[in-house]
Q: What sequence folds into this?
């Protein structure tokens, strides 16, 4: 029985694995593992996460690993070494999470996708098969419009208010409530947590839901930058007049409407499927075609 695994990382790390065996009774199994931030952990930590997956899946013949940051050769090599160490019998492919979403939406056809979750970026493929990317350079240098970026900007304003150099906004009180803090300056301890990115990013949607003018202004600023990057990719690919979007921020109707307004007349389609399932399905079909030739 041939099994194909699709390992997917959603911004902060390894999240799930789908296995698809060949045969009439095909099925997917979903596995959960502790998050792994590829940019901030060692290769040994990635191996430990993969070992937990291996203990559940057993042998697989092919693995496609889609990680945030895997578009960088250094990080990609780190992931590949870890995958081959734990799954030595499997053929392996490492791609970025953006390319994984594109593959799930368009297969090997032209198209453009945009992600806005913990991080953010745009990715496309042109009619010649060339890939084009804008954004997604990491939380220190980029990710404008993402949940982490929006929440971080709100926190910056809250600390400025604490220092007496900016005006009050009700979102600061929501910040204290959300993180169960006594004082605004206590928020700085969040950055010492292992999963600080997801912990900080989690505040973005509650902040937008309360109708804070500051939070909405920050959101619009980020969306403008993300839209510019998206348009740049669309112009390079000349792929279509529609794009597919995914990520937690696009589940916010307020955020999605604002992005649609800025990106007009391009049609925006929310991806509702499972990226890991689609990657595994396409990899399985590819293996079947290879075996039949």
A:
């Amino acid at each position: 029985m041939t099994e194909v695994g699709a390992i997917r990382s959603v911004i902060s790390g390894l999240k799930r694995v789908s296995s698809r065996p060949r045969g009439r009774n095909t099925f997917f199994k979903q596995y959960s593992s502790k998050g792994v931030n590829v940019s901030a952990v060692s290769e040994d930590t990635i191996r430990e996460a993969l070992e937990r997956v291996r203990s559940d899946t057993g042998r697989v013949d092919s693995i496609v690993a889609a990680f945030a940051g895997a578009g960088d050769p250094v990080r990609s090599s780190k992931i590949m070494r870890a995958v081959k160490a734990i799954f030595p019998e499997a053929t392996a492919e490492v791609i970025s999470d953006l390319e994984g979403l594109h593959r799930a939406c368009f297969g090997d056809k032209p198209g453009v996708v945009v992600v806005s979750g913990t991080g953010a970026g745009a990715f496309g493929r042109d009619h010649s098969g060339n890939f084009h990317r804008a954004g997604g350079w990491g939380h220190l240098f980029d990710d404008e419009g993402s949940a982490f970026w929006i929440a971080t900007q709100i926190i910056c304003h809250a600390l400025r208010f604490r220092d007496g150099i900016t005006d009050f906004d009700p979102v600061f009180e929501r910040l204290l409530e959300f993180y169960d803090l006594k004082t605004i300056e206590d928020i700085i301890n969040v950055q010492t947590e292992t999963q600080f990115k997801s912990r900080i990013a989690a505040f973005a949607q509650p902040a937008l839901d309360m109708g804070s003018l500051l939070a909405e202004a920050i959101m619009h600023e980020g969306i403008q930058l993300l839209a510019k990057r998206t348009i740049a990719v669309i112009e390079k690919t000349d792929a279509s007049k529609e794009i597919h979007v995914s990520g937690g921020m696009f589940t916010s109707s307020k955020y999605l409407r604002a992005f649609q307004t800025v990106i007009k007349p391009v049609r925006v389609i929310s991806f509702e499927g499972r990226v890991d399932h689609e990657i595994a399905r396409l990899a399985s079909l590819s293996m079947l075609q290879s075996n039949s030739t």
Q: What stands out?
A: DSSP finds ten helices and ten strands in the chain. The chain has a mean pLDDT of 84. Residues 213-237 form the longest helix (25 residues). Residues 103 and 279 are 7 Å apart (CA to CA).
